[in-house]
């Protein structure tokens, strides 16, 4: 289960009406058999006999099997590894989750309840749709919490809250739902256990295959659910899942299930933004009959009433929190409150950010903050009627701009750099790098610089305090995705004209600082490049000296590995990377822990025709006569792959393309009777120029290209590792 691979073609048109179980495909993994004494009698209850249990007196020649033994006690643990962490409604990673404010969104919740009550006679899929910031996640959270109470008319089966904050892997959507249902329902858990024991690759197969095996077969073919309450499955934020095709596929599968099997007691809720590909999918004739649509309109009368209730309650909490507001005139005055409520115009995210702005603990004077906000509202121009539908988001943009304008001019460069890094990492979905200790080490700044640069952004960013910032689950994040949308759109924020290009530039600046520091300090740590890197914030603190050293080392290695990773990525993508960094890259490759892996990366660059020309132009590669090479030094002291390629009339022949590892294989391939083109050319043309690369260890690559001796239309190329003399000048 720990090394599962998807062997299904996700684009293949499988028929959902074919419910016959598929036999597990044969594996290509080598068989490993543990020898143990053979005992008589049945196996213990906690064990499931393997294929070779008590077998004897047989011979298997060249076997290729995959023997998997499942222990029921560890089955759920293995399945859990294929789920999206923190995606369930009561996960600590979402604490505190968005909830419907008491007394709000009652109509939507009631409509959902009607769907649950009439699931046998009506439609069994509810589609909650609305723009950003209207409170869709809060509605789904409330439905999940209500379904978890004994008085509910449905039983919560599973909840999946997609998010750009790392909970966005479509391939794990079905296993996430399956795991939660299996926790609550024993017959279902037993069924899933048997299916995965029969085919361990099921949790990694296509979504269509998983849906058939994990929903249609148990609930339709085997009819395993007999509880008095229907089972509720909730999916929130479907549009935040990374793969648009899989978003549409999930909708199609669920809608098909709802229409094709009306007697199965499963009800579904999907919430998302009205993205074009999603609305198009829901509008298909085959899907339209399957669902009830509940649209949350931003500026509807009900939305305005709900937001007004929320604002009144939140401002009441602020008034109770600050005793100074209890003196004199009641705060806020009613006309001020109504102005703020009108500006919110039914958009919950505006009201939420506005109250955070007013209650900013770093300012400490809510009355002044409210006045600033009201003055800002007065300055917002009224849009023409034809553009009125964009008015709430336009006001939100003005609010975001006002919050960013609070950053002092001298702090703005660092603030801008941090926001660029946040936006870049969120776009790349590299959430592991959003911890503030790593941010400090990557940018090369101390914690006080980071906290100073973010000091005025608590209204829009969740900024972990220094006490909890080293917790791996506490990352810098935006309270709402709309703020990231705002930052990434130059026409709205004016922040980053081309944030992808600026992000690449920031990567290079950080790499250069790290590489130069390593090259200057490597004499002090000749065998460990990471130890040369300055740590601005270690991943925790400890009174134990050895433990503290480990924390510092962890920070150094993560920073070093990131620099190496980004260099290779930018170079392979042919992005603008200074060639002067190459020698620094070479130096750190030698001093680091992954030099063999990096050495293989270099080969890939050399065999790229366009890249090779650039490397020659900048003297990273050189041309040398083949007579200067010694055949005995080919793969002489290390093991790396030799790449052989034969091309003819621009067509590659796969039978003449391959990789060989190790000196003995190299010698056999290059010098046997069938492959003697190489040595003959070597001896006949001693002045033939080959392309060479060497690093500071004296290890290198040689690219040897020459025409076929019998067919001039053909061309051979060999790329092989070579041991240069350490003193050689190449």
Automatic annotation (TrEMBL):
<feature type="compositionally biased region" description="Polar residues">
    <location>
        <begin position="23"/>
        <end position="32"/>
    </location>
</feature>
<keyword id="KW-0677">Repeat</keyword>
<dbReference type="InterPro" id="IPR056884">
    <property type="entry name" value="NPHP3-like_N"/>
</dbReference>
<dbReference type="InterPro" id="IPR027417">
    <property type="entry name" value="P-loop_NTPase"/>
</dbReference>
<dbReference type="InterPro" id="IPR007111">
    <property type="entry name" value="NACHT_NTPase"/>
</dbReference>
<feature type="region of interest" description="Disordered">
    <location>
        <begin position="1"/>
        <end position="45"/>
    </location>
</feature>
<feature type="domain" description="NACHT">
    <location>
        <begin position="124"/>
        <end position="274"/>
    </location>
</feature>
<protein>
    <recommendedName>
        <fullName>NACHT domain-containing protein</fullName>
    </recommendedName>
</protein>
<dbReference type="Pfam" id="PF24883">
    <property type="entry name" value="NPHP3_N"/>
</dbReference>
<feature type="compositionally biased region" description="Basic and acidic residues">
    <location>
        <begin position="1"/>
        <end position="21"/>
    </location>
</feature>
